[in-house]
Design goal:
The structure holds two protein chains of two kinds. Chain A is mostly beta strands. Chain A has one helix at 343-359, and strands at 2-7, 15-20, 26-31, 35-41, 47-54, 60-65, 73-78, 83-89, 102-109, 116-121, 129-134, 138-143, 154-160, 165-170, 181-186, 197-203, 208-211, 224-227, 236-241, 245-252, 266-274, 281-286, 292-297, 301-307, 313-320. In chain B, the strands form nine sheets. Chain B has a four-stranded antiparallel beta sheet with strand order 1-28-27-26, with no helix packed on it. Chain B has a four-stranded antiparallel beta sheet with strand order 2-3-4-5, with no helix packed on it. Classes of the chains: A mainly beta, B alpha+beta. Chain B: Keywords: Autophagy, Lysosome, Membrane, Metal-binding, Repeat, Transferase, Ubl conjugation pathway, WD repeat, Zinc, Zinc-finger.
């Protein structure tokens, strides 16, 4: 089903993040070796490194693409307490002849006093905005008032989260009914009882982000958090990577019922929980339609999760790091409907299904 | 254990014990130094000079050396050092340029011994000779280094660096006569103490000031230097030219560097600004610190390993007026907290995955990275067993690409491109779209289109042949639909599964009946979901059979709860209810239910190949006989659209919305429609389907959407002849009165698509220019400009 292409990344230390651009034709990687590499897909489908440059003076945790409407723009964040905005410049130098592109730092965001652990561009309809979170537990939201001038960013919001933050995710919904919303995860292992994931929602009246009411608590360190692409749904789907994979649905309670001033109430249900990685889960990523979730854990495997029509989430495949055929990937083939090779998954999906039914 | 025994022997029988602890000082510390017995530490600063005893649980103040009513500037210490051979001997460097020695053995309260007032400016560093009891070295801001013999009143020799201020001086541990000095201009000098006239060697080590250096305690000739350029470099001084062996990049300027005892590759650093932490680095892994101490709240100014043979105790003084003892095992390890994996879903369902080699290697048996080749062989020869090196971590990056057809999103692109949304009669649009969906193997979607056609087109237009045609095609690959609906014609083999499947659905509707308001939705779910393996499945091209495997298992849970339930008797009475009570306004429940069932019936009929034509005709006939207006189905259609949207198939929702137009629009609130439109347009743009996206914008009735294309775009164009901005008068230049829209390749006036270079204003026919630029990167007009076409 999946054709693995191993890429000689040539990063000198761990790669911490991989990110596709809006059109899926470019890829950026960042590493502890303080550099970012940009990869372009050639006609033949191979990935070529077209830029590699030193970005920070410490491990680069995340790299993320802006919407192409704002140009070819990347943002990165690092343990060196900064986040940076980069823009590709098209020049007439011989770089182009060598198939190399040139990236220029447009802005260094220096507000954090500790490691900046994540950086994400806001959905396009909100304009050119950027959120960062840092190890001292502050969520910052920046805006470039002039989209043509990437060197000007103003700090719009500084939101204390009380806990060391590890990851953020914007709610990508374009619906006018949904206010801007951002989820923050924390990997703080010291304060055990506190919830490690929070959601902040923008309030039109106060012009501020305030904590949305959530009943659900996640007390294990959260490593990654991802809203699924909304695509016209009336509710939101959120995946969390902690000691297991969890999938939540967030249903905004209808406006008329809540008091107009306060934050929208969210009805939140956990629709699935999978411990199949048997270890810490580091990453979750949604496909473009928000129907498939991929997760990566300390077991070195990527697992794919999918809901069937009953909203039962179940394992749809396992890929090991090298993409070599694992027992699980045979499940993907149309010819082999047998699930016997992977009974634990099945049981889990049933478990998930019962959870789903309880809430429906 | 081995490590422990080594430490013990090194400490001559008494291993150090203690815990991570700190004590408050009265004033910020500038430097600390440890006594040879590892039991006392001296802290010096601008207004502090104290000796503390390091006890098991705490620091205890032993002696305040700052005596006298009016403290002189001589007591304002920039540096302090405790002699490593004489427990009573200390030296301090004062900010006024004085070097003071202290004798703790003096009986009086004032322990001051000697005073050397030879430097003109702040003395930055003092250093005792490691083996010679009376030799003291100082380095000052005035650019001179002086060597003192403590038995004499003044300096023995003066070394002039001939460059800027001296920041650090350090006697070599192995070479009796050698010392190193570092300078503010980035230089490092090596001196022979017997030859004050000129340095043995000088090289530029850093960009900007070199704040500190430290000789390796074991490896002769290894010098670590740290500078404002945030780097720590390790130099091999044994070779003819100083050779850079390692380079560690920290996040702030390096103020102090100290090799860790017993760990050949480890060194501790602290910073002068911004960063308050102390890091311990393995120089072989120059990017990620091996350990980190985060106790201090302000800049750390002095660090010292407590005992020259014990790697686990580190002492530090800070501007935050605290003295700390750090235990290595309590350090935080950034490596452990760093995320070892990256994962991203691509647009076409491909996955990019980067993972730490060791995580992946275990499974695939691939050889891990063989280490850094920059290491010289001799350095690798004996690896300290007490210091297991995890290896240079590296990640494996791979992209899992979906095979074309199966799991990719090509269905989305194909569907978007081939759907007909307007410009033809409704029936044709529905048929066309159903055909497209069917050809792409999306049977449920195809079925929906067919049903829409039946619902909204008058029966006269439905040619049975046409319908049969599409139906026949559908049923050939419509297994999941068939087994969910057509109970009557089910073969015995499939029957059991289907029954269970069906009963599961009914369980839900049964419970739902209790709550009449929810019934409709539940039923709707019921109806649609039964075939809905399809939209959820193409992404991976998952197996229907796999789903089927699930049913028996699933229903084993369900079945016992509803043992008395008998299936076939439910659907049919209801069906008749429709006919009997076609429009009973008081029976909301029934009304809601009945179209649903009739929809099912239509489905059943059209899906069953056995009696397709006859039953289909009879059903549609029955429907129209009962004079059900299309409005009757609007609730159903509305819910169907919502269903598709919630399933993530916004394409279907928008396409139906456009095709049906007014027929269904009024049932869906404006905001939801806009949400669907914008989501779909965003998705189309992701796939670069600009034409489709434009069409959708044009066809949309939502005001917010249709104005997307009405934002004005202004093009500023220069005349290609005179290079002046063109007026608004079209393609004729005001100044040179020539037509500007000439093709630079064929020299004809361009009508239609005109492409031009923003750099030189030359352009022409799109095809011509594209062709030209394939062969040459220069402008076809010959102006010499390197045009770019992208």
């Amino acid at each position: 089903m999946f054709l693995p292409h191993s890429i000689e990344a040539d990063h000198k230390d761990l790669i911490h993040d991989v990110s596709f651009d809006f059109h899926g034709r470019r890829m950026a990687t960042c590493s502890s070796d303080q550099s970012i590499k940009v990869w372009d897909k050639s006609e033949s489908g191979h990935w070529h490194c077209t830029a590699s440059w030193k970005t920070h003076s410490g491990s680069v945790w995340h790299v993320t693409w802006a919407h192409p409407e704002f140009g070819q723009v990347l943002a990165s964040c690092s343990v060196d307490r900064t986040a940076a905005v980069w823009e590709e410049v098209v020049g007439e130098s011989n770089d182009k002849l060598r198939g190399q592109s040139h990236w220029v730092k447009r802005k260094t965001l220096l507000d954090s006093r500790t490691s900046v652990t994540d950086v994400k561009f806001a959905p396009k309809h909100m304009g050119l905005m950027l959120a960062t979170c840092s190890a001292d537990g502050i969520l910052r939201i920046y805006e470039a008032p002039d989209v043509m001038n990437l060197s000007q960013w103003s700090l719009q919001h500084e939101i204390p989260c009380k806990l060391s933050c590890s990851c953020i995710s914007w709610n990508p919904s374009i619906s006018p009914a949904h206010y801007p919303m951002i989820a923050v995860g924390s990997n703080d292992s010291s304060r055990k009882a506190m919830t490690k994931f929070q959601i902040f929602e923008y309030n039109e009246n106060t012009k501020k982000y305030s904590k949305a009411e959530i009943l659900m608590t996640v007390t294990d360190p959260v490593h990654d958090i991802a809203f699924a692409p909304n695509l016209g749904r009336s509710f939101h789907i959120l995946a969390i990577a902690t000691k297991d994979v969890r999938i939540f649905t967030l249903k905004p309670v209808r406006k008329e019922l809540t008091s107009s001033g306060g934050p929208t109430k969210l009805e939140i249900h956990m629709v699935a929980q999978f411990a199949n990685h048997n270890s810490q889960v580091w990453r979750v990523s949604w496909n473009i339609t928000g129907t498939m979730l991929a997760s990566a854990g300390d077991d070195g495997c990527v697992r794919l999760w999918k809901a069937n029509y009953m909203d039962n989430w179940k394992c749809a495949g396992i890929l090991n790091g090298k993409g070599s055929p694992v027992n699980g990937s045979s499940q993907l083939g149309n010819s082999n409907p047998s699930l016997s090779s992977n009974t634990p998954n099945l049981q889990n999906s049933l478990h998930g299904s019962s959870a789903g039914r309880k809430h429906s | 254990m081995e490590k422990m025994s080594r430490v013990t022997t090194a400490l001559s029988g008494s291993a150090l014990t203690g815990r991570t602890m700190h004590c408050h000082l009265d004033a910020p510390a500038n430097a600390i130094s440890v006594c040879r017995d590892a039991a006392q530490v001296v802290v010096a600063g601008r207004s502090i000079f104290k000796i503390y005893a390091i006890e098991e649980e705490q620091f205890v103040e032993k002696l305040n050396l700052r005596v006298g009513r009016k403290p002189s500037l001589n007591l304002s210490c920039a540096d302090v050092v405790w002699h490593q051979m004489d427990e009573n001997l200390l030296a301090t460097a004062a900010t006024n340029g004085v070097v003071v020695t202290w004798n703790l053995g003096r009986p009086s309260r004032n322990k001051q011994d000697q005073l050397f007032t030879e430097h003109k400016r702040t003395v930055n560093k003092v250093c005792f000779h490691p083996t010679e009891a009376h030799v003291l070295l100082s380095g000052s801001q005035d650019g001179f280094m002086k060597c003192f013999d403590l038995r004499r009143k003044d300096s023995v020799s003066t070394f002039s660096g001939q460059s800027e201020s001296v920041r650090d001086v350090q006697f070599s541990i192995r070479d009796y006569f050698t010392f190193a000095s570092t300078f503010e201009n980035g230089n490092v000098q090596l001196w022979d103490i017997r030859r004050p006239d000129r340095c043995e060697r000088m090289f530029t080590a850093h960009n900007g000031p070199v704040f500190c250096c430290d000789w390796h305690p074991e490896d002769r000739g290894w010098l670590a230097t740290g500078g404002r350029d945030k780097m720590v470099k390790v130099w091999d001084m044994t070779t003819h030219r100083a050779k850079e062996m390692h380079c560690v990049q920290t996040i702030a300027s390096v103020a102090r560097v100290k090799w860790r005892p017993e760990c050949r590759h480890h060194l501790a650093t602290c910073s002068m600004m911004v960063d308050h932490n102390i890091y311990v680095w393995d120089v072989r892994r120059p990017f990620v610190p091996a350990a980190m101490f985060e106790e201090h709240r302000d800049v750390t100014t002095g660090i010292a390993w407590r005992h020259p043979h014990d790697p686990s105790f580190l002492l530090s003084g800070s501007k935050d007026s605290t003295l700390c003892q750090h235990l290595f095992r309590d350090a935080s390890q950034p490596v452990e907290r760093a995320n070892p994996e990256g994962l991203c879903y691509g647009l076409f369902g491909d996955l990019a995955f980067a993972a730490k080699e060791s995580l992946v290697a275990a499974e695939s048996g691939r050889k891990p990275y063989m280490g850094d080749r920059r290491h010289p062989i001799f350095f690798k020869r004996k690896l300290d067993p007490a210091e297991p090196f995890s290896g240079l971590a590296s990640s494996a990056l791979s992209v899992f690409e979906t095979e074309s057809g199966g799991g990719s999103m090509s269905w989305f692109v194909d569907t978007a491109e081939r759907y007909a949304l307007a410009g033809r009669p409704l029936a044709e649009l529905c048929d066309h779209n159903a055909k497209v969906a069917r050809e792409l193997g999306r049977n449920q979607v195809a079925q929906t289109w067919t049903m829409l056609r039946i619902i909204y087109c008058s029966p006269g237009l439905v040619s049975s042949a046409n319908l049969n045609h599409s139906v026949g095609k559908g049923s050939s690959c419509g297994l999941p639909l068939m087994n969910s609906f057509n109970l009557k014609d089910m073969g015995p083999g499939l029957g059991s599964e289907t029954r269970l499947d069906r009963s599961k659905g009914d369980t839900r509707s049964d419970t739902a009946l209790l709550d009449s308001s929810a019934t409709l939705i539940t039923n709707e779910d019921n109806e649609e979901t039964e075939g809905s393996d399809v939209p959820a499945d193409y992404l991976l091209g998952d197996v229907e059979g796999e789903e089927d495997e699930l049913y028996p298992l699933d229903t084993e849970h369900v079945h016992p709860e509803e043992p008395e339930y008998v299936l076939p008797q439910e659907a049919f009475p209801l069906r008749h209810e429709i006919v009997d009570t076609p429009s009973g306004p008081e029976h909301l429940q029934d009304k809601a239910d009945s179209p649903h069932v009739s929809g099912n019936e239509a489905d059943t009929a059209s899906l069953a190949p056995v009696d397709s034509s006859s039953s289909l005709l009879s059903v549609s006939h029955a429907l129209y006989d009962s004079r059900l207006p299309p409005d009757f189905f609007s609730v159903l259609v509305r819910d169907m659209l919502h269903f598709y949207a919630e399933q993530g198939d916004v394409q279907m929702a928008v396409s139906v919305l456009i095709v049906l137009g007014e027929r269904v629009r009024k049932d869906i609130d404006e905001q939801t429609q806009e949400h669907w439109y914008t989501s779909y347009i965003d998705l189309l743009q992701r796939f670069c389907l600009w034409n489709v996206s434009n069409e959708v914008v044009k066809l949309s009735t939502s005001r917010a959407v249709s104005c997307l294309n009405q934002a004005s775009t202004t093009l500023h164009v220069n005349c290609s002849h005179c290079k002046r901005p063109m007026s608004s008068r079209g393609w004729v230049c005001d100044r040179c009165h020539r037509c500007a829209s000439m093709c630079a390749v064929c020299h004809h006036v361009v009508k239609g698509l005109f492409v031009w270079c923003q750099g030189c204003s030359h352009g022409g026919h799109l095809q011509h220019i594209m062709k030209w630029l394939e062969g040459s990167s220069h402008c076809p007009a010959g102006c010499g400009h390197l045009c770019e076409y992208s």
